[in-house]
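Archive entry. Fields below.
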Amino acid sequence: MKLVINGQEETVELQEATVAELLRYKKVEMPEMVSVEYNGRFLRQAEHETVRVKDGDRIEFLYFMGGGMAG
Amino acid sequence: MNLTEEQIERYSRHILLKDVGGAGQEKLLQAKVLIIGTGGLGAPAALYLAAAGVGTIGLVDGDTVDLSNLQRQVIHFTADVNRLKVESAREKMEALNPDVRVVTYPERVNKDNIAAIIRDYDFIIDGTDNFPAKFLINDACVLSGKPFSHGGILRFDGQTMTYVPGSACYRCVFNAPPPKGAVPTCSEAGILGAVAGMLGTVQAAEALRYIIGKGRLLTNRLLIFNALDMEYRQVNIRRNPECPICGEHPTITELVEAEQPICDLRSRYHA
Ligand SMILES: [Zn+2]
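PREDICTED_STRUCTURE:
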């Protein structure tokens, strides 16, 4: 399916997937530290397991950026 | 307030801008901006705000200048090593522009002092480098209805957003500080000095535009850039109804402080 991830259109080799599976597919490090915006709405951490992505969805992975601590 | 001949000359390149003009410059001279942290972000912000003629600039930082700060904290010079950062910064700002009154707070913000420190200011710049301080600044500004600029940097990356009462806040995006121990190391991950300058300068421009009241602030948007590939992008954000401080059922109604890992205490403002 085609998704818009971090502003870029991408074809992902997944038929159907939860946000958590997409995070794994994208090899996102420390997924519990990522804030996910799904079609304009921020997901609760627990929703990563339940929300299913579909063709055309827009997903942003936002990372903590604080300075020296986020090593 | 009337600009003097000397001020008209000093600020002539502002006054030429139709969105600033004499009236905008007078607003700047009467404005009060607080910069929390005079490190990588606060240093360029302080210099640009002083140069711009922001009448009162507060500086909050309990740290002293370290040799390893000079790679990016451009307001501090080699001879300032071991001096209080707020003193070192004040000296440069006053030398740059005698129109500016610099108020120094040689301390860290905490849940007990922050409300009193921000009270007198029109706009706050978060130039800290650690999450407990960033969340505390967000919470204090939301609870007291103060606009502020959030900024974060890491390695070659930076991100920034602006809050004004009614817009999305930092907790709308990032619910809570990262849990203690979730972060692999307390040592600095490194930062390209110029990235700090890029981001701190964006924050200064937000403060100036807020005061002048022109243009579109970085509200309800997160500006993210990567200076390794020099790519910028914007993420639209909106108020999160589940936000713990500005949402429909807020759970944070007074200031709290997140736990600070011991080894990070020394480097609170080293961003
Ligand atoms: Zn919020």
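CURATOR_NOTE: The longest strand of chain A covers residues 58-63.
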